[in-house]
From TrEMBL:
InterPro entries: RNA_pol_sigma-70-like (IPR039425), RNA_pol_sigma-70_dom (IPR014284), RNA_pol_sigma70_r2 (IPR007627), RNA_pol_sigma70_r4_t2 (IPR013249), RNA_pol_sigma_r2 (IPR013325), RNA_pol_sigma_r3/r4-like (IPR013324), WH-like_DNA-bd_sf (IPR036388). Residues 131-182 form the RNA polymerase sigma factor 70 region 4 type domain. The lineage of its organism: Bacteria, Pseudomonadati, Pseudomonadota, Alphaproteobacteria, Rhodobacterales. Residues 32-98 form the RNA polymerase sigma-70 region domain. Belongs to the sigma-70 factor family. ECF subfamily. It holds the Pfam family Sigma70_r4_2. This is Sigma-70 family RNA polymerase sigma factor. NCBIfam families: sigma70-ECF.
Length: 187
């Protein structure tokens, strides 16, 4: 790992520490360093710029509030920040009122963008160099991919089954066994 990504990770950890202590410059540092990428991820998930901006703003509020609860030993600061954003985006997706105004073409475009959310090795950037990255790397590829599709891209077990071309029970088993292995590895 080069110094630049390590340095960026340390800067994000310091920014989260500042947020946990109630210093607003922590949010400023996160937005300065990762704002454009966060907005891009939100836009890919939601398919609309206005909703992506709303999700990013909501995520920053959640990060500000929950920074003291972030457990450094369970993954990188960057991974935690992106997980907060992802969860906020998925909440917005579930909120049908906001999406009711979308055309069928927009909904199709959103689904296609969601499929590209997890490039083959993109999980390594999200997990960082901490224990979570090591534990994910130790999983077999089908289990790791199924877990990431469920917990990063927000796919249901049925969608994962169809996407991976396996029976539903197989997809569920991959996720269950993979999560058990992750729990054991992280403890």
């Amino acid at each position: 790992m080069t110094e630049q990504p390590r340095q960026r990770g340390l800067m994000l950890e310091q920014a989260l520490d500042a947020c946990a202590k109630g210093h607003p410059e922590g949010i400023d540092a996160i937005l300065e360093q990762e704002g454009a990428q966060l907005l891009g991820v939100a836009r890919r998930i939601l398919g609309r710029h206005d909703l992506a901006e709303e999700a990013l703003q909501d995520a920053m509020v959640l990060i500000w509030r929950k920074a003291p609860q972030q457990n450094r030993g369970e993954g990188s600061a960057r991974g935690w920040i992106y997980a907060v954003l992802r969860n906020r985006c998925l909440t917005l997706l579930r909120d049908g009122k906001r999406l009711a105004s979308l055309s069928p073409e927009d909904l199709t475009r959103m689904q296609e963008a969601r499929q590209d959310l997890l490039p083959d090795d993109g999980w390594k950037l999200l997990a960082g160099t901490g224990r979570l990255g090591e534990c994910l790397d130790a999983l077999d590829d089908p289990s790791r991919r199924a877990i990431l599709l469920a917990h990063v891209a927000g796919y249901s077990h049925g969608e994962i089954s169809a996407r991976q071309g396996v029976p539903l029970g197989t997809a569920k088993s991959w996720i269950r066994r993979g999560l058990a292995s992750l729990r054991e590895c992280l403890s």
